[in-house]
Structures are given as C-alpha cells and as structure tokens.
Amino acid sequence: xxxxxxxxxxxxxxxxxxxxxxxxxxxxxxxxxxxxxxxxxxxxxxxxxxxxxxxxxxxxxxxxxxxxxxxxxxxxxxxxxxxxxxxxxxxxxxxxxxxxxxxxxxxxxxxxxxxxxxxxxxxxxxxxxxxxxxxxxxxxxxxxxxxxxxxxxxxxxxxxxxxxxxxxxxxxxxxxxxxxxxxxxxxxxxxxxxxxxxxxxxxxxxxxxxxxxxxxxxxxxxxxxxxxxxxxxxxxxxxxxxxxxxxxxxxxxxxxxxxxxxxxxxxxxxxxxxxxxxxxxxxxxxxxxxxxxx
Length: 294
Description:
Blueprint: E1 9-10, E2 18-22, E3 28-31, E4 38-42, H1 46-55, E5 60-64, E6 69-76, E7 79-87, E8 93-95, E9 104-105, E10 124-128, E11 135-138, E12 145-147, H2 154-163, E13 168-172, E14 177-182, H3 191-196, H4 200-213, E15 218-224, H5 249-254
Antiparallel strand pairs: 1-7, 2-3, 2-5, 3-4, 4-8, 5-6, 6-7, 8-9, 10-11, 10-13, 11-12, 13-14, 14-15
C-alpha cells in the first residue's frame, strides 16, 4: 500500500503511540519507567532509523501509532513539531543487554481476554467512560478530550466493562491489541499462579510501575480493535451551537427530568443526591489509572 506521507513530512493528526528510542549507532530500545533500564529491539529496523537520523542526527524518541505510523518530534524555530518518519510493523524481541536469555516477545500470541499481558505495557493511550459509551484522546497540552470517531466491538466493550466498570484508560498497540490495567480484585482466583508464570522482566516492570508511578494495577489483554487508525474530533466548546436547538428548548428542558424545590437565598436544592462540584455524573469516578509520564 502506498503511503500518503513521505519521511520528514509534518504530521497533523494527534501524537500518540508505542514509545521507543534510538541513537546514531542504529540501536532501538524501549526504556523502563523513569529509569535507565533498556530492552533492545531485535531485529532493529535499519531503514527506519536511517530516515529518523536524516531529521534528527542524534536520534531520539519515536512513537508508533495504532495504525503503524512512526512519529517523532523535533525543534523547528524554537517550537516542537511532529513529523512522520515511516510505517513499521513492530515485531521481534525486547532484549535486556545484560541477560539476553530473558528477552520477551514484542507481540505475545495465544492470549484470551483477561489474560495477563506478558510483555511491556505500551501503546497509543485512549480513555473511556462507564459502559464504554464514550472513548476519547486526552490532549496532554490542552488537557481537552477529543472524541474518538470509531467504535469498539461488542466483545471488547463487554470485556472492558467487566474489568473496569467505572471506565479508565486503555492502550492500543501497533498491531491492534488492546491492553488495560486492572485492580487485583477484578481478576479470577488463579491470578497468583498466572502471575508466577509471567516472564521475569515483565514481573519486574510491574513492580517498577508500582514503585515509581504509584500504579497499583496489573496489565491484561482485553482483545483487539477492528478498525485503525483512530480518528478524533475537536473537543466540545462552550461556543459551539446548542446541539438541541433544532428540537426546541422546551423539549430539551423536559429531557432533564423532575426538578427539585430550591431555596431562594442560596439556590440550593432539597435533594442531597447531586453531582459533586457540578461534574457530569459520567465523569466523576473515572480513575486516572495510567500516568503517561511515569
């Protein structure tokens, strides 16, 4: 398939993806959270690294989207811009240089929804609300939520709702696997035995997430997405046209349900079962379960 981009083209879509790093020697590695431990990708994609070095002679960080687009950010006139480097089917092994025999596969196979994820936990990060009725991408600069246009399969929705009924975050890998972090009490009773069978590197990475990022959760495989890459819409704005205007204000007000008697002095209502701080009831309890910068 012919790409719509050439290496070095500006990237105008959202910046996200599985995180890797490179250097001028052609090494490509995944780096552990807030640390210096590295897992080297073997085999390394020589052509991709060459394209990156033409733009950034010292190498640097890249991200691989759920659509297999490879992106990087580089300084341009005192501002950082995002560039397309190429397409890459990420695969192979992640190898600890001091003990290569403990390498882990980039793409584990033979997994069922709910199984522990036996590799590094990474991918394009998205969030979802209760019941997976809404999916969005959080812009790290503006902190605004951009709705995702695509929908998930019912099987995937069922799995995410089972393990994360209040919503949370998920990761989509470049090969379309969906991963998420869950509480221990959401997992079946044989969890301890399954954890013991995980690769040594993966168990130590889970411990690092807890110790360095405060993440008290475990990574599982949730399923696959059928349609990638994800497209996002602009976030809602207070200056948008009123979405229910065509149906009439009276109709929209009727949809709010019953009203409560208010106190004239302070405009409070008799009913104490109200949303805290005026937040949407859908958003109050969505956990921040996956800090992006741990």
